[in-house]
Design a protein that fits this description.
about 250 residues, alpha/beta, Rossmann fold, 9 helices
Length: about 250
């Protein structure tokens, strides 16, 4: 077995994310997948495996390997290590590359990274089911990706543990729905104004109760006044059949 220099530190307790592809050219989507996976999974490092030739693409479609690697280094910055290790291993297919890496670096744990847009063609990869058993596969949803991951043979067979990356954009509300919500809010505001606040209702009830008590007291006072007047009138009026005291004395 030929020794191959790794693109970065290896060893036990290290987990390396592998992002493979032709990178023709590299773009921000590749960087996004690397950053999301590295942060979410706590990866020790991410290697970008720039393939010398993609079996699913014609060689005439690819720029020179060194050109693609140089541009990939500009895009990745310090977030990933760019390597042509596949050309040095002599492998063309991902499953063979992973096997070779595991044989040469058995103490290092590898995780395969891919964007959600690659799931559509994953079933065309050589021995994709074998690859899924060799190492964990992490799929990151890239912004703007509308791909339904559940339709992928990878997801149908093995399922998914968690979702990484940007969530699906929610459908915008229709104008009719917006108008309905505005009308409902206006109706609720009118109801609140008609009902008044709890403090206002309490104050109104207290004032109303006070007015009722005042009216009741006034009525009682009027009854007492009328009763006193009646008593004085009866006391001043002589009884029938009785003469005044002066007349009896005479």
């Amino acid at each position: 077995m030929m020794w191959v220099k790794p693109p970065g530190p290896i060893g036990p307790h290290l987990t390396i994310g592998l992002l493979g592809g032709s990178f023709n050219p590299a773009h921000e989507g590749h960087r996004y997948v690397s950053e999301v996976a590295k942060k979410a999974l706590g990866l020790s490092a991410v290697w970008w495996l720039v393939t010398p030739g993609n079996p699913l693409k014609r060689a005439s479609e690819l720029a020179e390997l060194l050109t693609r690697m140089a541009f990939a280094a500009e895009i990745a910055g310090r977030g990933a290590r760019i390597t042509d290790i596949e050309s040095r291993l002599g492998t063309r297919y991902t499953v063979d590359t992973v096997r070779a890496l595991r044989r040469r670096f058995p103490r290092t744990r590898f995780v395969w990274l891919m964007g959600s847009d690659n799931l559509a063609g994953f079933g065309r990869w050589k021995d994709w089911a074998v690859l899924a058993r060799l190492l964990p596969i992490v799929v990151v949803r890239r912004p703007g990706s509308a791909l339904d991951t559940l339709k992928s043979p990878l997801i149908r067979r093995y399922g998914q543990a968690r979702r990484l990356g940007a969530p699906r954009s929610s459908r915008p509300e229709s104008q009719e729905s917006t108008r309905q919500k505005a009308c409902q809010e206006n109706h609720r505001e009118e109801d609140r104004r008609e009902e008044g606040s709890p403090e206002e209702n309490h104050e109104a009830a207290r004032e109303e109760g006070g007015s009722e008590e005042g009216r009741e007291a006034a009525r009682e006072e009027e009854v007492r006044r009328q009763g006193a007047q009646t008593a004085r009138s009866q006391a001043a009026r002589p009884e029938k059949g009785r003469a005044p005291a002066e007349s009896r004395a005479a």
